[in-house]
Amino acid sequence: NGGFSTVASGPVLKPGASDPRIPAIRKRMVEAGTLKNAGGGLNYDNALAQAVIRFQENMGLEAVGTIGKQTIAAMNTPVSERIRTMEINMERNRWLQNEFAPYHIFANLADQVVKVVRNDDTIHAEVIQVGQPYHRTPVFSDVMEYVEINPYWGVPPSIAVNEYLPKLRKNPGVLAGQNISVFSGGQKVSATAINWSQYGKGNFPFSLRQEPGPGNALGRVKFMFPNQFNVYMHDTPAKSKFDSAQRYFSHGCLRLKDPLKMAEVILGPEGWNRSRIDATVAGGKNTVVKLKTPIPVYIVYLTSFVNKDGSVNFREDVYGRDKILGEALAKVRGR
Description:
The protein is of the alpha+beta class. The protein has three domains: 1-77, PGBD-like superfamily/PGBD (Muramoyl-pentapeptide Carboxypeptidase, domain 1, Orthogonal Bundle), CATH 1.10.101.10; 89-151 and 218-300, L,D-transpeptidase catalytic domain-like (Beta Barrel); 153-210, no CATH class. The protein has helices spanning 22-32, 46-59, 69-75, 79-95, 157-170, 259-267, 274-283, 321-333; strands at residues 103-108, 113-118, 121-131, 140-149, 153-154, 180-184, 187-189, 207-210, 221-224, 233-234, 248-250, 254-256, 287-300, 304-306, 312-314.
């Protein structure tokens, strides 16, 4: 019944500050379940800061306690909108199979987190980078079959034509610095011997492949669950992008923050310890490890979910899928 308390906009607040909005923020945190009582003065004290941090974590925001525009907006989101988001995601959960495999990998694109789960316990979790809004990572499930250490990167045709071809027209030697080779009919050819200006979309008889190495776009390891979307998990040289609370940077694949730890978790049952993995990486040789027991992988898009501690989480609908599903549900329900 009723709605959430609202908090007025104003200057950014950091712990230790004093502000007339603090009582309203205290009340809002009590409503959110991150603070026990709203008592206190105008000072942004440590107890309130910890409550705000928990609230920010539940909202998928940068959880440092600083109260800026995004946090105020999350506090002021109407309860009706939150309920609507929960209804939409309850529908999404209904689509999921009733039972996941006892041992599986679960990635929530809206949360930008991947988990390895065994018997309902999360044995490893890490943040990921997912597809940009115009390169959306699809929702699907498949089975992880192998792990590749020191992988080659077969440049997707769309990236080869749209991103590399314009560069090759200007400088045919541009690929050498990126350790990328050009192939035609399965044979390696010299990029500098080709007149790139005569090729374009629909007329590009070449394939590009980046050799293994520290600068490889896939990093040092990739985790393969072959599928029609050519989506998989992999390392990335773009480590600084993990510092962002919103990590929509890839062309569709799932980029891992700690891929070697993921390899340790996945390959441990296969007889690989961290020392062996590190030694193989250091050797630089392309190495494929087939899993004796393939692992189910579930990739979902949930903008609202409940943690094990019972806290309700919300995430920004970056892909714009809530609006579409919400409208469809409204038509079905006649409202």
